[in-house]
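--- STAGE predict ---
source: upstream dedup step, 1 unique chain passed
mode: sequence only
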Amino acid sequence: MTDGSNPLRIYNTLTRTKEVFDPIDADHVRMYVCGPTVYDYAHIGNARPAIVFDVLYRLLRHLYGEDRVTYVRNITDVDDKINARALRDYGAEIEVGRLSLNEAIRKVTEPTYDQYQKDVAALGCLPPTHQPRATEYVLPRADGRADMVSLIQSLIDRGHAYAAKGEILFDTASMPDYGQLSKRNLDEQQAGARVAVDAHKKNPGDFVLWKESSDAEPGWDATFTVDGKPLAIRGRPGWHIECSAMSDALLWDELKNRLSAEAQALPHRFDIHGGGLDLIFPHHENEIAQSRCGHGTAAMANYWMHNGFLQVEGRKMSKSEGNFVTIHELLETEKFGGRKWPGEVLRLAMLMTNYKEPIDFSADRLRTVSQKLDELSDLIVEMDRQSRPLETFPYRGPSEDLIFMLTDDLRTDGLEGHIERLTQQIRGKFGGFWSARAVIQLADDLDFLGFDLRNWRERQVESRVSQQVVAGISEKIDERLAFIREKNWAEADRIRDELLEQGIQLKDGKDPETGDRITTWEVKR
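--- STAGE serialize ---
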C-alpha cells in the first residue's frame, strides 16, 4: 500500500482531474478493462490498452499485494459477424442439436482467442485474473452471477428500458444525468449499438439492449416481462450490455462476501474501469447508464482511465490506407519495416509515450527502440565480464524512483529519462567508473515493467538464427564444403566469415564412422 507521502494519483476521465486513488477496499482492489473482439487477429491498436493496463496492474499488485488485486479483461465473442460465421460454418449442426450456438461460436473464435493470448504474452503482459467470454454471460447462469438477460429485465422493471419492434431499448431520458462521462447533452447523442437500429426509439440517443434475430440469423432464446406480460424474443444482446454484466459478475458477485463492510455498503461498484479513448462514447457512457440504472446505484466505477489513439506512420490505421497491421504480423512477419519485431521492442515503443497521449507507431520508432535495448543488453554483457553474471543476483524489486514516476498517473513517458540516468550511473558520467549496482537496478526496474533484459541478447541471436535457418544455412555449409573439396580456401573462408557475422559459428570435424569432413554450427555466444 502507498504511504501518505507518495500516493497513487490517476487521471479520472469522469471528473477530468488527477485524483488520489482511494480503493473501496484496499484488500480487494478491482479493475475492469475492455478487451478485444475475437473476430480476427488483434491489431496493434489493441496492444496499447493491453500494455498500459498491464503496467497499472503490476503497479497495483506492488502497492497493495499480488493477491489483493482482481483484474478482469473481457473477451467479446458476441458480434454479428462472429454469429454469422458460426451459422455459416456450423448451422446444420446447430439445427439438429449437435452444437449449441455458444459451442459453435467457441469453435469459430478459438483460433483468434488463442492467438491473442500468445500475442499479449509476447508483449510482456501478465494474464488477468479473469478473461470472461461474453457468450458465457448472455443467459441466466447456474451460479447466479450477473448475466445480460437478467440485467435487461432489471432495467425494464425499474422503468429504464422498453420494448419496440422486437427490440429492448434503453430509455436515455429516464436517466437525468446521462452523458456525464462524455460530457454530452442528450440531444447530442447518437444511437450506439453493435447491431442495426430502426427509427422507432423514444429518444434519438436510446440504444439497443436486445435485438430480435430473424430465422436466418443466430440468436438466444430469452423471455422478458414487459407491462406484466411475458415477451419472448429470440435474439442477441447489444454491444454495451456485456461489460455491465461481466464486470458485475466478477467484481461484485464473485467477491462480495469477501469484501469489507464499507465495500459491501457500496454494492455493484468497483474501483477502476479502463479502455481506449474511442470507447468513452458510446460504449462506456452506456455501460454506466445500464449498470447504475439496473442496480439503482450512484456509480459503476470510481475511476475511469483511457489510453490515447494510435496512428501508424502518421495516418489513422485502416485497411483502406494500407497501414493496417496486426500484433501477430509485427511479431512473426517482415510486413512492417522489413523485419520481425520482438515483443519487448513493441512494448517499450508504446510505453515511451504518455498513455493518454496519441502515439505515432512507425518503423523508425521501432528501430530506435530496438537499438536502445541492444545498448542496454551490452551493459549486462559488460557486467558479466567485469563482475559476475546478472542472473546470479536475485530480483530485488523496482526502485523508488520508478515507483515515484508510475504513481504519478502512470508516467511511463519518463522511462527514457529514467533509463538514461541509470545508464550514466553505470558508465560513470564523470569518472569512468563501473557500477554493477546500477546494472542490477536497471534490470530489476525493466523486469518490473515486463521486460526480460537479462535474456534479451540471447533471444535476439536465436531469432536471427531462426530466420537464417529458413533462408538455408545448410545450403551455405554445403557450398563451403564443396569449395574445401576443390581446395578453394579463400571462398570457403568467405562463407565461414559471412556466417560468423550473422551470429553463426561453424565447427569442422570428422564423421567417426566414415572419416569424412562434416560441419556443424551453433549460435555464437
